[in-house]
Amino acid sequence: MSDDITYRHRYKAGNVGDVWKHAALTLLTEALPARPRRWLETHAGAGRYRLETTGEWTAGIGRVDAAGGDRPASIDRFQALASAWRQPDAGGRYPGSPLFLRPALGDADRLTLVELVEEPLAELRTLFADDAVVEVVAGDGYAELTARAGDVDFVFIDPPYLVREEWERVAQATIDATRAGACVALWYPIKALSRPNGLLARLREAGVPTLALDLITGDLAKKKKALAGSGMVITRPPAGLAGRLAEAAAWLGPVLAAGGEWSLRVQAWDA
User: Fold this and answer.
1) Lateral strand order in the sheet of 154-157
2) pTM for this prediction
3) Domain extents in the chain
4) CATH class belonging to 9-269
5) How many CA atoms lie within 13 A of 8 on its CB side?
6) How far apart are CA 68 and CA 137, in angstroms?
7) Following DSSP, what letter does each residue of 43-99 receive, concatenated?
8) Half-sphere exposure of 268 toward its Cβ, with a 13 Å CA cutoff?
9) Bridge-partner residues for 93, per DSSP?
10) Which residue from 85, 110, 152, 261 could staple onto 93, CB 3.0 to 4.6 Å apart?
């Protein structure tokens, strides 16, 4: 999930942003009315990550694992996929988004995973070395998406957001891919609402049919660069998806906020 050598997702794997991202992605792939045949992820990362006994995951998937009570059906499959390599209270591994996408594909489908940075690229190639459905490509995810315009049914975009210009790049890539016929899922971090609001305004102005859900589990009023939440955009969203995502958020919100305040902002519009 990086186009910059300074970013390493393993330090953030399984955190609150990953939990909302992957829960939403799992529900989306289940809700698609006609299964896409050609899938592409622009910033695939390493595919899975080793967790230490401490780390950001303890406030994310660690809290999900430890939560008591009944989970809603909208959480069940995410929980199973997220915990497949987990060792409760002892680290283990946490899957990246390719391993949440892969179960949705059939033998005749194709998943293209693009990664620019050498180290995660090598790990990704090892992980999917014997998988005939998955193609691992070295390079820039935006360029690969542009080159395949009109030949991709589903796109997942999840860059590191290290520079401000990334917000414009994801907006344009989402607009272009949607106009070319794809369903696009886009994740973004929320530390303040100004940049997410700008992104959503661009999509609305472009007339892209959009469902956007921002799950806030931290304090937006703090003048720090801490992650307060994250958002998911889905273009050409399947019918009924908003309700299932809201159900998942209603369970995840208080769990990830550790008893503190949380909120869900839902926006949707047609072309």
Assistant:
1) 134-138, 110-115, 38-41, 154-157, 183-190, 229-235, 210-216, 263-269
2) 0.93
3) 9-269
4) alpha beta
5) 9
6) 41
7) S-TTSEEEE-SSSGGGGTHHHHHH--SPPPHHHHHHHHHHTTTB-TTS-EEEE-HHH
8) 14
9) 50
10) 85
